[in-house]
Automatic annotation (TrEMBL):
Signal peptide: none annotated. GO terms for biological process: DNA transposition. Residues 62-249 form the Transposase IS801/IS1294 domain. One of its GO terms (molecular function) is DNA binding. Residues 265-291 are annotated as: Disordered. It comes from the Bacteria. This is Transposase zinc-binding domain-containing protein. InterPro entries: Transposase_32. Pfam families: Y2_Tnp.
Amino acid sequence: MQARVSDLLPVEYFHVVFTLPATIAKIALQNKAAVYDLLFKASSRTLLTIAADPKHLGATIGMTSVLHSWGSALTHHPHVHIIVPGGGLSPCGKHWIACRPGFFLPVRVVSRLFRRLFLEGLMALHRSGNLAFSGQLAHLTSPDIFKTHLAPLRKTAWVVYAKPPFGGPGAVLAYLSRYTHRVAIPNSRLVSADAETVAFRWKDYRIRNRNRQKVMRLETGEFIRRFLTHVLPPGFHRIRHTGFLANGIRRARLETIRLLLAAEAQDDQEASDDKTGPPDEQSSSLTCPECGGSMVVIDAFERGKTPKSRSPPWRTAA
């Protein structure tokens, strides 16, 4: 977490969550390395592609992605949390392009592109023989059956959740410190455990009021099975950095972005200082919001004071 402090930028940060449908989650359970890797690649490519589109942001963004495979009840629920700075580098690399305050990218557009990229990637994995199936999914070995199995998913909406922006870089760091290295269930949620049963607290998100907290009691063997479901393949990285935050270029890109942000802040300050000059110096930059013509400052007075000029200037006859 201390290493991540130096990566934080003085900009708004956004939090986007990509979730795999239940049908795909079953395939992922038997092909963790391949499908989880595809989840990382499809979600990051989706954001990079849409953000680069001039219709949306027109910039190269950076992101940190964190894989979670569990739900509150230790069920298999693969999804990836992505933390994104609110803006990116222009195509020429000489300007910082900021997002609109409180808005990152259109969720519906993001969801559709993610669905297409993921399904294309999954089909490619199947054609290359990188997916294995057993038990109830053994029939998916057939290319035709696999294609038919995925067909309904091309028409359903995939869940992409854009959470409210973080309260600032400090909130981003607090989130990362809590959730990046956690396991499926922390010790604090355990209520009791013995040879027969394990009880733990969980949240039922189907309930919308505050009484979501419940206690689940499972047979010890079932609890162990659910817990082991979330063990990742050896060497698998569940935290990844993409875009201008990619490991090979992160330091140089962050240094460039900080210089650009500092220059923009200085320009804004100078523009603000210019507006505090005498009224006559400002008049040439003032335009009428109705007709677009130049506006002339008639009088200036302090807050709470009465202006000296009691009548408007004469209008020039047309």
